[in-house]
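INTERNAL AUDIT FORM
Audit reference: QA-55
Scope: verify that the stored structure record matches its stored sequence.
Auditor: D.O.
Record contents follow.
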Amino acid sequence: MDPTRQKVKLNDGHFIPVLGFGTYAPEAVAKKEALEFTPFSIEVGFRHIDCAHFYQNEEQVGQAIQRKIADGTVKREDIFCTSKLWCTSFRPELVRPALERSLKNLQLDYVDLYIIHFPLALKPGKELLPKDENGKLIFDSVDLCHTWEALEKCKDAGLTKSIGVSNFNHKQLERILNKPGLKYKPVCNQVECHPYLNQRKLLDFCKSHEIVLVAYAALGSQRVKEWVNPNHPVLLEDPVLSAIAQKHKKTAALVALRYQIQRGVVVLAKGNNKKWIKENMQVFEFELTPEDMKAIDGLNRNIRYYEFQPGVGQPGYPFSEEY
């Protein structure tokens, strides 16, 4: 089976590869890892690269992509590249300049997908996480429908092929979908999704509106202390996943990735280990049975690793809703 051909159709007619390579890494290693592991991911068959301005390594990811284009491994059109609009650039007049900055860093004329990273606006400026003298985040009030209109203009200008959102709950999606004069529906909603948080209701909602769910943290989390609740159990140590993995002679990580693909979810896999990155391509070599799928569905505990605590209580904080 050719992994580079495994794609899902988006509601605007473009196609997204079902397996993506995530480039987020803790700040201390993000740049170095991007230069080392992004080219390797392309060599082993990844064609979908997930980036963001917030990750602070788009320049290195861009160099890696260009290197693989230059050596003939891929052409630009073989790569599906996602970037994300960070919360400090939600004011409509800041959207296009933010995208242009990402394009410059990535050394690309366009991205395949540009998405709103998180539905909470922060004070514009150089700082990614602007804080007041008490160390509290400084929020901004922006109507995300106006931000969305600016994204639509970026699509019309050819700077991005598709536009979508990330970390939105169903009510926030509905606001965009019901917006008067909507030109383009979001093609995707990228959210935390794994067997302990299977997002069944949000997935059903998205499917009913032809919105693709894209799963991040599909293997649990990297335990980055300011983002992640460290008290939660480690997903890949789950006995049910381990038993299914043993049965298929695969790893628990591969089972967690395969689970998403079989339910119609596009799944991102991060990697800071060449063995794992290469191993992730084996997700296309086996199939889970209906019994396996049912057993994994049964693991849902609504455990969210990435809670983004500083946003709790803010209007627009997405995770207060059930889905």
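Auditor finding: record pair retrieved intact. Residues 13-312 form a domain with the TIM Barrel fold (CATH 3.20.20.100).
Action required: none
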